[in-house]
Every structure is written in C-alpha cells, then in structure tokens.
Amino acid sequence: MRKKLLTLFVGLCFASALFAEKTLKSGFVKGNPEIKSINALSFGPEGILFVGDSKNAMVYALDTQDEAVSSDKPDYNIERFDEKIAALMGTTVENITINDIAINPISKNIYVAITHSSGKPALLKLTNNDNFEPVDMTNISYSGQALDKAVAADAKDGRGRSLRMWAISDLNYSDGQVMLTGLSNQEFGSTFRSIPFPFNKNEQMSSLEIYHAAHGRYETDSPVKSFTTTKLDGKDYIVASYTCTPLVVFPTSDLKPGQHVKGRTVAELGNWNTPLDMIIMEKDNESYLLMANSARAVMKIKLSNVADFNGSLTEPVEERSGTAGVDFIALPFVNVQQLEKLDDQRFVMLQRKADGNLTLWTSNDRWL
Fold first, then answer.
1. Cα separation of 58 and 121, whole Å?
2. How, if at all, do strands 177-183 and 96-103 pair?
3. Which phi and psi angles does 297 have, rounded to 5°?
4. What is the pLDDT of residues 91-124, one digit of tens each?
5. Which residue positions does the secretion signal occupy (predicted)?
C-alpha cells in the first residue's frame, strides 16, 4: 500500500511539474527570426513582446526574459532621448527613426523600436536606472506567424510611394488575441486581423470601411493609423483613428473572418493631422482616450461620450481643420510622438520640447 501511495505521489508531482512548465512560450524556438522592420510593439503576458514586421509581413512573439517584478515605481525623465539612442548606435539623430515604444507591465522597463537610415531595425531596452541596452535578436527565443494576403512588397500608392510599410500599421494584444491593422492585397485594402496566441496559423481577417468626413466620402483603402480596445456599454469595441482625422468605432463581434465591416465614425478631429498613438486611462469610474497627434496637441476624449453618440457622421466637414461629432479637450502637450500607459495612475510621453529636446517623461491622471 505504501509503495502504491509513493508511486501515486511521484506521478502527481511529475504531472504538476509538467503543467507548471507549460507556458505561452512552450512552442518557441531559439535562433534569429531575421526581423527586417519593427513597425509596432505590444506586450502580452509572461514578458512576451509582440513585434509587427511589415517588410516580412510577419508578427513575432519574443521572449524578453524580463519577468522580474519591479519593486519601485519609476518616474521617467530622460532628456535628449534620441541623442542617447543615436550615441549607443554609433550614429547621429538624423540617422534614426523611433517607430514605437512599449512598456513591460511586469518589470516596467521600456522597449524602443528603432530604424536606422540604412533600413536596419534595432530593439532597445530602457531599464529603471535609465540605461539603454540593445536586445540581441540574433539568438532569441521566439515564435512567428506570416500574415495572409498582405499588401504586395512592390505595391505603390498614387504618388509612387511604397505601400508595404502599411502591411502592419498598429498592433495590440488583448485576451489571447494579437490584433493588427494595416493593408491587404484585397479589393478593400484596409484590414483588421485577429490572430490567436499561441500562434497556430489561424487568422481572422476583416476588411474595413469608414466615412471620412474631412474628405466627404466613404473609404476602404485608408489604413487605421492607431487603435486600441475598450468596452462601451459593456460590449467590446475597437477604437481607431485614421489620418486627417476620423475617430471610428467597430464592435469586435462584427469583425468576423471574411466580413466587410462599416465602422461608425463618431468624430472628425480636424484634418491636416496624423494620429500617432493612443492609450486609455481611467479615473473616478470614467475612461478617457488620450491621443497624440502630428500637428495638434494631445486630445482627451471621454469614452462615455463615445458610447452615448448616436449614429455616425455621414456629412462632410468642409471647413479646413473643422471638427464634428464627439467633443475633445486639447491638453497642454504638443509635439508628443508616443504615449504609453505605465500603470493605473501614470503614463509616459515622448515629447519634443520647445527647445528641440526630445524628452521621455512621466505624467499622471491629474490631467483626467
């Protein structure tokens, strides 16, 4: 009897060990994913960093091995951010482009996607002590999935510019899904993709249509520039912004494989502008959308106002830089290039100050 109990105990321990070791990274391989571009970043669980690579038309999951819980609450204030990055890369600021930043929710370390003027991508980690460290992507544990029907590598717009960079315009991870926006090679090019993670070669792809009030027409070939996920009246939605600058919502329940989905345009925020980044912050049971822009201040929008907005904009906004639909408040932050949530009370901004100094700094929910 004692021998049987011992055998059972050992078996249970072995089964428990196997179960404990099985993580979202169980199917990863180690090597060089040969990433050719880093267009968008987003963190998932277990310190997994998702990378959107438009040149390869691939999305990658990287094991950052960065799962040590931060014991402090860092307040970033790093001046001459681009100069420090350029110095680390042995070049000058004119030769680098900062594509995206993402904050690891476990360690609070910031990851920065860079493109050198040669076209070579780089990924840097900014630790709590404000040191930059290159992330070695030549021998990293990773998983990847190719995008189906991505816009062709040689596709060009009406001005002869490459459209391949828009294969992935933005990326977010939510509830076991890697969500991407960008362009496909289909008749209606603007596309939303949802890929289950861990990757299993399955992909749900929907084409998108919106009414662009500043242009006075419906459009199917303009990619989403920035998007996030949220709940409106208890239902899951994608909140997306496009260049020049309609704000559109899509119920995620409508974004089914092969479906052509018309979004509901809830605001025109003024043309001659490009949305650069957006996050959602909460305070006093109210959710707020914060959006950074190329030619305007950071905008604050109550999501309850979005939920309460009936119908959709369907008439042109003819006044240059005119606005319509849901109201917004312009916060006193201009030339903000990136936004990222640090925790429930704080967020990080990458901002070009009046003296030309590019600064990464922490703000808080006092602005909500």
1. 14
2. unpaired
3. -70, 165
4. 999 999 999 999 999 999 999 999 999 999 999 9
5. 1-19
